Structure formats: C-alpha cells, structure tokens
Amino acid sequence: xxxxxxxxxxxxxxxxxxxxxxxxxxxxxxxxxxxxxxxxxxxxxxxxxxxxxxxxxxxxxxxxxxxxxxxxxxxxxxxxxxxxxxxxxxxxxxxxxxxxxxxxxxxxxxxxxxxxxxxxxxxxxxxxxxxx
Amino acid sequence: xxxxxxxxxxxxxxxxxxxxxxxxxxxxxxxxxxxxxxxxxxxxxxxxxxxxxxxxxxxxxxxxxxxxxxxxxxxxxxxxxxxxxxxxxxxxxxxxxxxxxxxxxxxxxxxxxxxxxxxxxxxxxxxxxxxxxxxxxxxxxxxxxxxxxxxxxxxxxxxxxxxxxxxxxxxxxxxxxxxxxxxxxxxxxxxxxxxxxxxxxxxxxxxxxxxxxxxxxxxxxxxxxxxxxxxxxxxxxxxxxxxxxxxxxxxxxxxxxxxxxxxxxxxxxxxxxxxxxxxxxxxxxxxxxxxxxxxxxxxxxxxxxxxxxxx
Lengths: 132, 311
Prior knowledge:
The complex is a heterodimer.
Chain A: E1 6-10, H1 19-30, E2 34-37, H2 44-54, E3 58-63, H3 68-81, E4 88-93, H4 100-105, E5 110-112, H5 118-128
Parallel strand pairs in A: 1-2, 1-3, 3-4, 4-5
Helix pairs in contact in A: 1-5, 2-3
Chain B: H1 3-8, H2 12-23, H3 27-36, E1 44-50, H4 56-69, E2 74-80, E3 89-91, E4 106-112, H5 124-134, E5 138-142, E6 159-164, H6 171-175, E7 185-188, H7 196-208, E8 219-221, H8 230-247, H9 249-280, H10 283-293, H11 298-310
C-alpha cells in the first residue's frame, strides 16, 4: 500500500455544483488514490497553496460556471511561479470543444467533459503522472 | 539546495516533501529527522479527537486563528481513514480550513491512516517532528473520527482535546473506559443544540469520580461554527500546558510517550525481519496449510517462525 497517488480535487470559481467533483473524488478513492478534497469556491491561490502543502501528484479542477479559460490557466501559472513543474493538471466540467486546445496549450493537460467514464480519468492519471 | 537545507530555511515545499517521504517509508526522510532531531521538542502538540462530525476540523480552524492572532506559527496534521479495500482515501478536513490556506505561517497536511489503527497514521509521529523542525510553535493533530477505543493520540500529544457533541448517548457512555479517559480538556461543541448542559453535567459527574489529582479536565461549551467561546477554550488548553510545564509533568509525559514510540519502532523492525524470513522460504504458506489441516497448532507455528531469528 505504499506510495498512493495523491490528487487534489478542487472547485475553483463561484458555481456551487460539486456533484461531478464528488463523483470523481469517489472514483479516484476506489482506484486506490488519496484524494484531498478542498470544497467549493476556491481561489487559484488557495488551490496552489493546498497543492504545495499536500505535495500532490495531480491537481484536478471542476468548473461549471464558464470561467475555465481564466481560472484553469491561472492555476497552472501560479504553480509554475512556485517552481512546481511535476504536477499533472486536469480540468473538468462544461467546457466547449473550441476551448480545449487553448487550455491544453496553457498546461491543463487533460480536459474531461460531462459523460466521461471515470475509468478514463483514472487511466489518464496513471499514464501521465510525472513524479517518480 | 536539498530538502534538508530548504526545510531549515522554512520552505513549505520542502516540509511537504519530507512528510511525503516519511509516509512512503523512505530512508532519506528518516536520515534527515535523525540529523535534525536535536531541533525538535519546541512545538507544543495538541491532539484533537472526537466522533465523526463532532466539529474537530472547524474547531481546529478556529483555535488556529486565535493562535495566529498572537503571531504563533501553527502546523496542522489532519488524519482521515484509508480504505482497507482499495487503499484510497478521501481527505476532507481542509474544507473547514479554507481561510488558512493562504496564511504563510500555517501549514496544513492531510494524511490517510494507510492501514494503521488507533486514530492516526504511522507517519504522523514523523510528520510531527518535521513540523517541529520546520519551526511550528503549535501543532494540532486531528484524528480520524473516533469511536470508543482509538486512543493513540494520547501517545503523541501534550494536550488531548476531546470534542463532544450533545445527545450522543446516556450517562453510561460517560463512565465507559477508553476514549473518555484520555481527555485533558473537553469541548462540548454545537453548544446551541438542546442537551449541551446535560452532556456537560454527565461528564462533570464522571470527573467527580476520578481519583483526587491537582489537575481536573475542564469541560467547556463552545460553538465552532458561530465562533463562540473559542478564546475561553484556548485558554483552558493553555492552562493545561502551563500546568504540565510548571509541575515538570510535561517532561514526564513526553518521556512516557517516547518510550512507547521506541518500543513501537523496535516492534515494527523486528516484525519486518521475521516476516521477511518467513515469507522467503514459503514457511508461512506451509504452516498455515498445516494449521488449517490441524496437523499443527498456531502456537507451535509461531514458535517455528520466531526461531528463524533466534539463531
């Protein structure tokens, strides 16, 4: 049981819809990961501070308010400012297809829209994790 | 700069990484703690325990804010249970501590129990030392939501704060052995609920039956969510701290706890040594077959395994 993958699941922005985040958190738990759940309405600064203290391998965020183009890249930028390069950043929620390439380029390496099977997210994390 | 140098400079990431290494049983982490152990012992350790949903996280958040107003540096280790089936965990204590995330003098770390019973995780012992070296004045250890017998927090805390809520059973619960015996300070949280006075009375009556001592655990009604009487509660914790320091009992208590810790480390290492040998030659497999067939009994099987390292 040593070295479980540690994932921060966070809800940046102002929408209060955390059903999806909770479903993901539960699925990752069942896949043997340690999920740090930080709750609703987190600022990018809070998310990055938690990611630092928790020494996570993955930051997974969910937004349904439409603010993803602003908030997701900001989290990546703040992580880089902290000197963190080895954390996998994922985004989920209602995200129009046209926005995805821009987000990926900004460093949000996996984008998962509604209807994605949780198995897919788990497989993506296991394949793309960067820490040894 | 390596982790050790960065840790001594108060670098949060270094502290976080060291705790991860401890959780993953990395020898490098143990070596760092060995070298820096002389720097530990300055932080005052407060254990926060109580049943699930009693408000341990919210109360820890509020107490931390009081300590921060005094300029103290605070570390928080928040433990939640690991699944015995998948090895995964949901660590959700940070939800109640969102405001503290950006405070540069607060360090919050969520930990899964990773198979350890007793309300904390095995790595919690090491993580306390990491936060001590990092320079915390106070360290809170928030246990998993406990039942009646998870009392390991008493082996690592200087003060145990027991968080109760009204109407969790009758007065017999208050006189049962176990968790009720380890509290140095009782907080009755959610004091706005009916029954808070009755719960306080039941605990007080139970304390009346204790042997005479120069310290009696206080019982304080608080409301963490409404931020009521948190300052009073902190003062009670402080009173206990002062009592231990003035009477020399802090050293006594820490010696007692360190003895337990050393024994625990020896047990762990011995078990590892024995089991490695037992698993090597399939001895365990063989013996369990024989025991199941009744050609061997479990006590003799034990003696055979122990004899592996006797020579």
